[in-house]
Amino acid sequence: MKKDLGLRIAAPLLAIAFAMGVSALLLQVTGNSAGDTFRVIVEDGFSRTYIVDTVNRAAPYYIAGVAIAIAFKMNLFYIGVEGAYRLAALIGATVGAAVSLPALLHVPLILVASMATGALWALIPALLKVTRGVSEVISSIMLNAISLGVAAYMLGTWFRQPASQSPVLGTRPIDDSGRLPELNGLLRTIGIDVPDAIRVQSYVVVAIAVGIAFYVLIWRSRFGYDLRASGENPEAAAASGVNTKRTIVAAMVLSGAVAGLIGLNNIMGSGGRYTDVTVVGGLGFTGIAIALLGRNNPIGIAFAALLWAFMDAVGTPLANAGLPKQVTGIMQGITVLSVVIAYEVVRRIGLRRQAIDLRRSTEGDGAQPPPGHGPEVAPA
Amino acid sequence: MPAPTTEPAPSTELAVRLTNIVKRFPGVVANRDVNLSVRAGTIHAIVGENGAGKSTLMKILYGMQKPDEGTIEVDGRTRSFRSPTDAIDAGIGMVHQHFMLADNLSVLENVILGYEPRRPFPFPFLVDTGAARDRLVELGERYGMRVDPDVLVESLGVGQRQRIEILKVLYRGARTIILDEPTAVLVPQEVDELFRNLAELKQEGITILFISHKLNEVLSVADDITVIRAGTTVATRRPDEVDAHQLAELMVGSELPTPETRDSTVQPTVALDVADLTYRDPGTGKARVDQVSLQVHEGEIVGIAGVEGNGQTELIAAIMGLVDPTDGTIRLGDDEITHWSTRARREAGIGYIPEDRHRHGLLLDAPLWENQILGHQTRPPNAKGPWIDRSGARRRTTEIVEAFDVRTPTIEVAAEALSGGNQQKLIIGRELMAEPRVLIAAHPTRGVDVGAQASIWDQLRDARTAGLATLLVSADLEELIGLSDRLLVIFDGRIVADMSPDEATPEKLGTHMTGSTVEAGT
């Protein structure tokens, strides 16, 4: 098993190295210096400012990756996370701004409102699938488009803060009691000094909590076992007593509920309201890449989210240095492609090893040749 | 069975000759010392038990697997096949047990798929449908297998599909055709039709390799019969030299399960009671299970014999709660469970050995201990409340590996890495260790080696002695006769015979299995 772990880590590392190689080649071909680019990435990327930026960006990526992974574990290609989180963030922000409560109630209320919205939104494709056999891929693509329109309409007409108060289209701001504190102070008490200008969002704590819940539910609970079994072999799962339809609905609703948390990092942070800046689009699709990169595994997704966020974060210093920041986007794409190939290669190597181990441990107890009757040849 | 009207001159030329073929796999039955000589223009049957190595041998001949040792000669020339394409080029075609046809294409399109004739210049990128059609019609005329080239395959029955598969290999120029268990999926009339077709093919000089474990069929249709046991060719006989019983003995060798010390352990309590159970196919409305009634007592093994596809699968699915029966009742002990969920039935004590372990019994990518949980994920030692008890599940798995002799280095390997026999032993162990009241065992020794087969039989007998009620469905008649306390025969969804194993013989069962009205056909 130790050997397998080494193999499993080797695969993504090789893929990243390969992606860097291809990117370097592209940089040289386009007349840019690969050396300069990678120096900026390493020197500035690992500076305090961009480490904080990376972690802040990684939190929603991680949650998006988990939301996708829950459905992937059930072999559902549910891509409605994109639509679900934007609608959920809008509802969460609106509910949060509408009430005035102590923090201990206010914060959970916003989280629950968003999760409930995401869950209900995911219930639509889930019910379509189990009652009418509609592919979740098709229905969730359509629902993504619908949710964007619905969210834009609701924001523009019902939930908007009056233009007289704010020129930017957005919801009303949430009271401080509904916002999560920044972690700069806490870090300072344990000896890590981050200037207040660089905000360390506490949403990373939410992401970690989601990761732990994800692991416990999927790998340690009976429900998680049923879900994984259905994903690996639906017919065997059904024969073992799993109610496949119910599990499909549960997996998608759960995925939607987690998706509801993706867009809240800025709403519950310094932004305080839903605008096109505080809730960026595309996280649901990025989540697919991250879940793939992290192999639907809670730790793997964490590394994938950090890597992705890091490559986003270094875009700024690259642009400041007059280097093409698009190279990080290219690296992200190549990494995903090569990781998928590397995992398959590693899986086959692992299987071959197991087969060899097996042969060694059972050497010589194949079926014995039958006694008596020597082989004969057909009559000529 | 229509006897060939004109016997072709016995050929002395060999169409296929295999010498000292050896094929090894880790831990599973392999071919060794396989010698086979097939005379050109004859029907040569290969018989053997499930798992004896018939399929592996045919895969070697068809280029799907490479032998480790030995030589293959076709029409007197030594050949080495790297792929089926090579075998097809050498004039060998194969009709698989499971047809490989595209439902949404026409007969003609299926036949020419991959071998489309091109139009002459200037349109070489277009398919010459006209020429293909002429060729297909001509083949059909010559071999007496007329088909409508333009009908969609999805609208055809099993027998017709098989004919198309045969035409497909003929179209590709095959002179030797391998038929893998061709009658397993056919109804008796279709079997007659197939045998008529084979006789015509033979007359036209085509060589047929006919794989089967149905002895009566083989005796009536073959010119030569080669018996395979435990991966080795043990004898070749002509049908006039042997009878079915002698063939059966050659097939099972010393492993012939004798109805030994049949001390009845049958107790008066009925554990499983199926009454007037009917299941209609939701698509066609045809009754796949038709008013089936049966009782299994504690300590009893009730065997169900039947040609595959006569309702066994649906009967089991209804008992397991995988399909909802149209009519009738199922009782487990005192509880009526007709409409219970599968999980409730599992929890109430029904164990299940599925007929296809890869499709219905295992998570191939998951470790053994997770596979051991499957079907028992709600009960100790695998679960504690809503949580999976990982240490309990691992402990149980280790016990099973030891008690049921599952050959594996650790319980952490993926189920996929185990041989078929060891996978099956794991499944048997997991079901029996859960101490069920009723066990549904479908083909419990299909595709496992002889050693594993014997140990699985012992386990089932021991469980019977301990009071387990077992419903055994099998295609292996010796297994059924050797294990069962009572034998039922299912035909076309109905139970058509009920006998004690003492009076049962493979011949007698075979007669019932094909429906008594068409007895003459077999």
What does this molecule look like?
The complex is a heterodimer of chains A (380) and B (522). Chain A is mainly α. Chain A has a domain at 59-302: ABC transporter involved in vitamin B12 uptake, BtuC (Orthogonal Bundle). Chain A contains 16 helices and no strands. Chain A has helices at 2-29, 34-45, 48-73, 81-98, 103-132, 136-157, 184-189, 203-220, 222-232, 234-239, 244-259, 264-267, 283-293, 298-313, 315-320, 326-361. In chain A, helix 5 packs antiparallel against helix 11. Residues 363-380 of chain A have low confidence and may be disordered. Chain B is 32% helix and 24% strand. Chain B has helices at residues 54-61, 84-89, 107-112, 129-143, 158-171, 188-203, 215-221, 244-252, 312-320, 342-347, 357-361, 368-373, 390-403, 420-433, 450-465, 477-483, 506-513, and strands at residues 14-23, 31-39, 43-47, 69-74, 77-79, 92-95, 176-180, 207-212, 224-229, 232-237, 270-280, 287-297, 301-305, 327-332, 335-336, 350-353, 383-384, 387-388, 438-442, 469-473, 486-491, 494-499. Chain B has a 6-stranded mixed β-sheet with strand order 6-7-8-3-9-10, with helices on both faces. The longest helix of chain B has 16 residues, at 188-203. Classes of the chains: A mainly alpha (380), B alpha/beta (522). At the A-B interface, helix 9, helix 10 and helix 16 of A face strand 2, strand 9, strand 10, helix 10 and helix 11 of B.
What's a quick, concise take on this entry?
With 380 residues, chain A is an all-alpha fold. Chain A has 16 helices and no strands.
